[in-house]
Amino acid sequence: MTSGGATGRLLATGLTHGDSTPRVVGGSGVWFEFEDGRRLIDASNTAAPLGHRHPEMVEAIRGAADAPVLNEGWGWREREDAAADLIDIAFGGEDWVGAVRFFISASEANDAALALAQALTGRTPLATRTRAYHGGAGLAREMTIQPHWHGGLASATGAQRVPPRSTEVLEIPAPTNARITGGVDPTAEPGWAADAAAKLARSAAVILDYSQGGVYHTPAYQDTVAALAREAGALWIADETVTGFGRTGGWLQFQKGESRPDIVTMGKCICAGAAPAGAMVLSRDLLAQLDGTSWQTYSTFRAHPIAVAAVRAHLRVSLRDDLFRVAAERDQGMVDRLTKVAADHPSVARVDGRGLHWTIELHGPDWHDWDGSEAAPLASRVSARAAEAGAMIATSGERTSLFVAPPLIASEAEIDLIVEALDHGLELADEEVGTGT
Predict the structure, then answer these.
(1) Which of 12, 24, 34, 116 has CA atoms 20 to 30 A from the CA of 75?
(2) What is the CATH number that goes with domain 2-53+324-435?
């Protein structure tokens, strides 16, 4: 995942083509520009719902450069207004919402939310679903189930050095079947809930995301876990880092269920990629529990003026242009396209997704078995071949999984080009499946 030398003194990370990841020199709309002269569609970038260099995002960032240097401890009206915008627009003024706290990233927001849950409940263990990813720092890293994100070291020999966990992590079952093609759903039978209930009874919180590892669970699953958590006295944290702000259609994925979380965390696309930022939204009930206490967590750059300006600009543009609804309108078209992809390519084992976030999983090693020994995993080679046909399709570092998540501003013709590039890339995987290599 990470290597040095190929990029001089920069210790670089490459998710798509490993050490051969091409250098970006520019971008506009849905397109990347590379130093070798190519222009490729940015087909897998959940941080950029408005694409690259959106004029109103650029204007907002430039304006914020004139703001004073402020840390989190100073009162500032723009920060307060950004919190009000977030609640009023993305949450539609839902009366259960209490207050917002801004962070530098979703990893930091998740770490703080999980630590807060431990402090409030007096419990140490934390729960999440199978194949989860919640960040690379603190407790967020601990809650990351996927082995290639554990923060340790792996080598070409397959040897791994994994840092010890700082807290007990309890993994609950999750539905891993799929809308288009996939295996058996481990939550199809009611027995899974008993397992989850027993683990939640010991947990300070359960944190759920809606897309990581290619797991796109349903509103019914969310509502069941939420009810189990409430009964067990555990907090429920909805991690909307990827699915927030229109990626799956609507402002937030949890809103498709009946239940409402104690905490919502977000990052990546909250600023449409124009600045690093995250946020935590607390319920009124949880806010009441903090009354009379001092929450001892502070940071210099949280809610930096540039991040605040980007949050407000993104909300304004998405609301005005109805972009938060676009993915829902594109959903059936993506189902149709990717159903054909699955049928045409024997290398495809599973396809699942929502709106404009889709995972294509190939036949090959089980995700549990990742050890870092492959210099160029199959998914990375498929991604490189797709780039030959005009689209950058990412792998999330997994050996056999790719994901497609273009900017919400992508046209139907541009989405067709992405799927054509995916088709081209998968031809390489088909050859290897056919020969057994």
Answers:
(1) 116
(2) 3.90.1150.10
